[in-house]
């Protein structure tokens, strides 16, 4: 239940920042092989930071908590958040590096493979969450993932629940979890792979996604949203089961960051008072735009762009 002290549109995100080092090529090299790439780019990334950028561009008042090293990549992070109007709660860890990610992008399909090294953010703990309790208490929505240590994510969900803040848990990357984390989740947003890992069930289509979602509901989750890549997304709860097809906004250039965009957009829409299905459509439209652009955080669209896509859909439905 929202309290009077919670700010309309505010989203607090706990997660990591990494600098993305993106290589484009026709295929992945084999072990021991060197191949020629077609392009290289460096830019801001990390699931939590990407979600923060997506939510901020979508109109949310965003606070982001993480840890950084005292280095050039950390400076890129702070400059990124300042430019996006994101309030930083980043602790600087001396002697540790800021995280980085190697991203391979297939030139033909836009599909990706990623290696993440969390760096300083990998040292986050429950104490980091306790330091931002006032920020969480003031928010409408709290978001976290699993690139930082699980105890920090769980503590964030606990603090949000304590203050009646809506919780959105993006269980990525897929890791083994104790069952006591699931009742802390108002919403959980796994993709097919993560849903399969959490439930031990194959998730290859919408029916599979519903069955996996039922398992997560039994574990105590309020509402499950399974993102199904180019197929779309399924929202499943005890009250409703709604599938939203993916938005086709142009040629797919790069899919890295699309899931982060969805979660950030979904959180932003919830924070301004939209219902869950409308928020899912908003997040899906955001993700549909993002895959037509290179990069992760840089690919995130503005609220105006998202509203234009949703407006065209509404007009076509008339």
TrEMBL record:
Pathway connected to this protein: Carbohydrate metabolism; D-ribose degradation; D-ribose 5-phosphate from beta-D-ribopyranose: step 2/2
Localization (cell): Cytoplasm
CDD domains linked to this entry: ribokinase
Binding site for ATP: 191, 227-232, 259-260
Cofactor-binding details, from the entry: Requires a divalent cation, most likely magnesium in vivo, as an electrophilic catalyst to aid phosphoryl group transfer. It is the chelate of the metal and the nucleotide that is the actual substrate.
Residue ranges of coiled coil: none
EC number: 2.7.1.15
Residues that bind K(+): 256, 290, 293, 295, 299
Cofactors required: Mg(2+)
Catalysed reactions listed for this entry: D-ribose + ATP = D-ribose 5-phosphate + ADP + H(+)
Main location: cytoplasm
InterPro entries for the chain: PfkB_dom, Ribo/fructo_kinase, Ribokinase, Ribokinase-like
Active site: 260
Chain positions recorded as substrate binding sites: 18-20, 46-50, 147, 260
Alphabetized UniProt keyword annotations: ATP-binding, Carbohydrate metabolism, Cytoplasm, Kinase, Magnesium, Metal-binding, Nucleotide-binding, Potassium, Transferase
Molecular function terms, GO-annotated: ribokinase activity
Pfam families: PfkB
Function: Catalyzes the phosphorylation of ribose at O-5 in a reaction requiring ATP and magnesium. The resulting D-ribose-5-phosphate can then be used either for sythesis of nucleotides, histidine, and tryptophan, or as a component of the pentose phosphate pathway.
The protein's assembly and partners: Homodimer.
The protein's name in its UniProt record: Ribokinase
Organism encoding this protein: Paraburkholderia edwinii
Gene responsible for this protein: rbsK
């Amino acid at each position: 239940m929202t309290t009077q002290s919670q700010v309309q549109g505010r989203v607090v995100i706990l997660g990591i920042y990494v600098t993305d080092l993106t290589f484009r090529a026709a295929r992945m090299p084999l072990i021991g092989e060197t191949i020629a790439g077609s392009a290289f780019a460096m830019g801001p990334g990390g699931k939590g930071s990407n979600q923060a950028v997506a939510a901020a561009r979508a109109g949310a008042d965003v606070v982001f908590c993480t840890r950084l090293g005292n280095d050039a990549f950390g400076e890129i992070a702070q400059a990124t958040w300042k430019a996006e109007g994101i309030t930083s709660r980043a602790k600087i860890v001396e002697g540790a590096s800021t995280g980085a990610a190697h991203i391979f992008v297939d030139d033909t399909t836009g599909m990706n493979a990623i290696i993440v090294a969390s760096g300083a953010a990998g040292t986050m703990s429950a104490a980091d969450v306790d330091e931002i309790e006032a920020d969480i208490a003031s928010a409408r929505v709290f978001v976290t993932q699993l690139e930082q240590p699980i105890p920090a994510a769980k503590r964030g969900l606990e603090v949000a629940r304590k203050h009646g803040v809506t919780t959105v848990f993006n269980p990525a990357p897929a890791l083994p979890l104790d069952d006591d984390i699931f009742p802390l989740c108002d919403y959980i947003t796994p993709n097919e792979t993560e849903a399969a890992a959490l439930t031990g069930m194959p998730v290859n289509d919408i029916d599979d996604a519903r069955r996996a979602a039922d398992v997560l509901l039994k574990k105590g989750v309020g509402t499950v949203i399974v993102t199904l890549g180019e197929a779309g997304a399924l929202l499943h709860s005890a009250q409703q089961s709604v599938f939203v097809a993916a938005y086709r906004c142009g040629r797919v250039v790069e899919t890295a960051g699309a899931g982060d965009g969805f979660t950030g957009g979904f959180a932003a829409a919830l924070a301004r008072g939209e219902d869950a299905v409308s928020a899912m459509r908003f997040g899906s439209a955001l993700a549909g735009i993002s895959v037509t652009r290179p990069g992760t955080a840089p690919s995130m669209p503005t609220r105006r762009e998202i509203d234009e896509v949703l407006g065209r859909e509404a007009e076509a439905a008339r």
